[in-house]
Amino acid sequence: MATQKIKLNFINKSKDTNNSSVVVFQKNIAESFDEIAVAWKIIENCGRLDNHPFTFSLDFKVSCEDSYGNFTPAKVAYNGQSYEMVKDSSGHILKLSDIPATNPNEVEIRNSMETGAINGDIIRDGRIISTKTNIAPGQKAVFQFQPTIWIGTISQVEEGEVMNSAIIQTVNRELPLYGISSADIVMTGGGPGKDSTPFVFNLENVNK
Q: Cα–Cα distance between 192 and 170 in angstroms, integer?
């Protein structure tokens, strides 16, 4: 089954004079609201009237890191599925569990090994979009996403970096992508000195 990709095109129509970076991320709604989030995409050095195209796949993959620093191959995951980290004759592997996720709208990553904590990652378009660290044996991480992204300006954050709740709360623009095949994300606002206004992000030229 082909992965459905939403084509997005960021356009800088702001009056920004500080060369602000823009972060795009999702929130794992299966966790508490003040949980951490990962800077899925950082748009840098995008000058006035420049544009930056990228895609947002509706499908995502799961991967794990064990306590030895080994990473499993990323595997496509669907809502209702559960993956588990186990130890077999070759070492630690990530496999689809025979036991489905407790919630059909969620994806689970379980640590089914006897010893050693693991980290569980959700990967979208080749970049980590959510992570759960230190999953102890017998524990699991739970992930659920709505078809929305969050976007805003940010400083001193790199792509793939975990952002804490204080940073996340400064980015309050949510853009719904449900039913969209392509759209422009237009940034306006900004400006020098006392005439500066907050940055605004809106979807334009939306195609269903």
A: 20
Q: 112-169: per-residue pLDDT in tens?
A: 999 999 999 999 999 999 999 999 999 999 999 999 999 999 988 999 999 988 888 8
State whether 136 and 191 are in the same domain.
Answer: no
Question: Which residue segment(s) compose the domain that 182 sits in?
Answer: 5-57+147-207
Question: Of 143, 168, 192, which one is at a domain's C-terminal end?
Answer: 143
Q: How many domains does the chain have?
A: 2
- Tell me the residue length of the chain: 208
Closest CA to 150 of 126, 174, 116: 174
CATH for 30: 2.60.40
Write out pLDDT tens, residues 112-126.
999 999 999 999 999
| pLDDT exceeds cutoff 90 at 108 | yes
pLDDT above 90: percentage of residues in the chain: 81
User: 69-72 — which CB contacts under 8 Å span 24+ positions?
Assistant: none
List CB contacts of 65: < 8 A, sequence separation 6 or more: 71, 72, 118, 119, 121
DSSP character at residue 49: T
Q: From 96, 87, 89, select the one nearest 68 (Cα to Cα).
A: 87
- Based on the fold, state whether residues 136 and 81 are members of the same structural domain: yes
At 81, the amino acid letter reads Q
